[in-house]
């Protein structure tokens, strides 16, 4: 179907990309206090752009954390309302020395745009903005449906403020469905909708031994070593096969349907290629008896992200640290709950505490797992739009990641979410050399234009 | 016995302390590359002071690492020669926020001088310099015996350069005994000589999983987690009682003699007071069946000092790090050797490597354990001097720490060492709020003056 908005987007590809680069140059790292002003600057940059393209009621909403950005256009009487969500904060860029070009100097290389946040999520979030511009510019300032835009600046640190806002102001966000572009294609050129997400609890285990750091020569053999104790705890959290040992951890796990499992088996996936090209470890790990897709989409897991404390510089310091901490998260699947899982985990960790030390288990943030019923008109409109732009039938996958806001939209706003993302599996999310395939940025904008046009029918 | 040098030291206490403060203000942290110039500055400061007081052949000796400082006075014909050793480098000061006053702003409080290096070893090393000044100033520029001074700037990072120098230039260091003041009194007011040291191997275990950092949502359940693997390895290095599990680890351990054990039992030591005042943990740890003094002086141990890698900032980053490292050291006792122990440890760690990751074990530095025969004239001279200044009989103890240079002096120069130190057990070596009891600084100077005078007899 001819779409003037799609034509417009194609004519302005170069400018759209340049604008995205400007946004990527703002180091809006939400987890690092020293970047607080940068996070706000990104919010204000986006608010200005939403105003410029013709959105209304544009507002940078202050919160106790990083700000939200809101905008709307609500004059399509009788048409549905879409809540378009994205996040403009990014992960820290460290380790910096592994980036081939600086993380906040967007660089084009081999058809990709390299920068922290290129795909997660600035680049994908900005597709929504450019789809809106294309529609508004070619329809005399009108949109085919009603749109509310809601952007947050702390998705990478748990999204506490947007969750509170959604819970407190359902009337300001009243909509029929949500659109979220923070996921990926299953393979290059394969249009993909994500219909399931893992949940997460992110925790810290802190072990304390002596009241102060001690010299390991003077006190080694009498003073407890909190790192050894912490290692003894962590070693008991998973068995050699990667099965989590927390009692009752798997009790509530619901297996995917036989249909879903069969569909996953037909996806183009080569485990050995995946191991070599994406992981690069000698072997893969995880529970025996489950394929990689099932393990990463539909099985809960436990990972350790870092163990702060003690001496971590170059060379040798002979200290017995007073305390040691581990950052430990668990991915959850339907129908586990964050609350139940954390309670079981905390109790188990406390039960493992060795003599001579004390242990404290803290919950840093949480999000619930979910699956979306594919038999809804918005998912169907999305598959029609994707077929038109990509020339292929859509595949339905799940993601191993967690997008807690999808759960909040369901719980507080009763919205189904359409998770239409255009990242690629090797885009290095949360890692050095994050990138976004530039062709996918442009096809994403076109897909979103056509999706919104289709939902107006 | 009246000593004009002791009188001189008593008259100049205030200036001696002020000079020490100047030296402590130089942040000569040998392990941190950013302090390289400060380490040299401390060496030059000391060379200038040795020249000023009348020592000869003063030289800052360049090495591939931090410099050595040498000086001598060799005109006491027919008298013995003492090699006076000390180190002017210090441990890093972190964690900075636990210091009550800044680590490089020496501060007097309750009769103590607080600063990084106050007791380890700038303050104790400087006692030698001030004893030399007192003797030279009161004897027309003469000393009762021959003295060579040798100071190093990398004791806290393994002392590689001084070890190489001692091995290469035994002729330049020809002496009859060494004096080292880098140990402590067993209790306040109890003159103490240290006659045994533990050795050490300081190692790093590096575990590598994926080829790059990965998102724990996308890859959790398939990608190996190097921290979990490292914890699984470390948890197997010690059992719940603190006994090291490396096969053959204890094979060569020689127990102290029954006489030595009996002498230790008569020392004023209260385990519960030690736990409360020095350690502060709920219980002590270590091998059952051995007392605290035996565990810390005469039993080998294993400690983890820190586990660099991954995400260690505030908040949450959902990364599966590509690699994780642990800094692990072992304290050795006679007749274990560093070489044999490292080989057994490396083999054991490699055998524990879980599937999906690779492990590398690196030796960072090493020093051998040793015991000194107390029946030698220099130890006897030391006990006479200590009795005179402190009014009490000397106790002979061991130290759980490692002073590798004592082994090098024995091996390459055939020297017995007199380890006459004046620190206190609660001086916070290697920890925040390191201090030196000011009265002990002054009594230490007097003890060393009298010791050198006694060795001339």
Automatic annotation (TrEMBL), chains A, B:
Domain Peptidase M20 dimerisation residue range list: 195-355
Example of a GO biological process term: proteolysis
Keywords for the protein's UniProt record, in alphabetical order: Hydrolase, Metal-binding, Protease
Coiled coil: none
GO MF term list: metal ion binding; peptidase activity
Domain of life of the source: Bacteria
Name under which the protein is recorded: Peptidase, M20/M25/M40 family
């Amino acid at each position: 179907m001819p779409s003037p908005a799609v034509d417009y987007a194609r004519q302005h590809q170069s400018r759209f990309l340049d604008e995205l680069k400007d946004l990527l140059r703002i180091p809006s790292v939400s987890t690092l206090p020293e970047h607080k002003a940068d996070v706000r600057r990104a919010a204000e940059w986006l608010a200005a752009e939403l105003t410029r393209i013709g959105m209304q009621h544009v507002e940078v909403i202050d919160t106790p954390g990083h700000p939200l950005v809101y905008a709307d256009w609500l004059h399509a009487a009788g048409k549905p309302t879409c809540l378009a969500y994205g996040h403009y904060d990014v992960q820290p860029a460290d380790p910096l020395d592994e980036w081939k070009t600086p993380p906040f100097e967007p660089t084009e290389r081999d058809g990709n745009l390299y920068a922290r946040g290129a795909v997660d999520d600035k680049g994908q979030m900005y597709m929504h903005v450019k789809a809106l511009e294309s529609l508004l510019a070619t329809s005399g300032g009108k949109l085919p449906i009603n749109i509310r835009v809601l952007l947050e600046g702390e998705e990478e640190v748990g999204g506490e403020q947007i969750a509170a806002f959604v819970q407190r102001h359902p009337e300001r966000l009243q909509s029929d469905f949500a659109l979220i572009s923070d996921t990926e294609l299953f393979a290059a050129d394969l249009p993909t909708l994500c219909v399931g997400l893992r949940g997460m609890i992110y925790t810290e285990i802190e072990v304390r031994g002596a009241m102060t750091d001690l010299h390991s020569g003077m006190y080694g053999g009498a003073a407890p070593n909190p790192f050894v104790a912490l290692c003894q705890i962590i070693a008991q959290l998973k068995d050699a096969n990667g099965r989590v040992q927390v009692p009752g951890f798997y009790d509530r796990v619901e297996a995917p349907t036989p249909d879903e499992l069969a569909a996953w088996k037909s996806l183009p996936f080569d485990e050995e290629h995946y191991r070599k090209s994406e992981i690069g470890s000698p072997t893969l790990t995880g529970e025996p008896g489950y394929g990689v897709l099932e393990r990463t989409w539909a099985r809960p897991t436990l990972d350790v992200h870092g163990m702060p404390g003690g001496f971590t510089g170059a060379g040798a310091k002979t200290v017995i640290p007073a305390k040691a901490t581990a950052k430990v998260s668990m991915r959850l699947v339907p129908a586990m709950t964050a609350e139940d899982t954390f309670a079981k985990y905390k109790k188990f960790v406390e039960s493992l505490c060795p003599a001579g030390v004390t242990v404290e288990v803290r919950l840093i943030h949480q999000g619930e797992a979910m699956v979306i019923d594919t038999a809804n008109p918005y998912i169907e409109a999305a598959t029609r739009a994707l077929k038109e732009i990509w020339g292929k039938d859509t595949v339905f996958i799940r993601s191993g990641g967690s997008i807690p806001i999808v759960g909040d939209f369901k719980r507080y706003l009763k919205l189904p979410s359409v998770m239409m993302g255009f990242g690629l599996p090797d885009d290095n999310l949360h890692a050095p050399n994050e990138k976004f395939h530039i062709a996918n940025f442009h096809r994403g904008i076109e897909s979103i234009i056509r999706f919104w046009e289709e939902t107006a029918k």
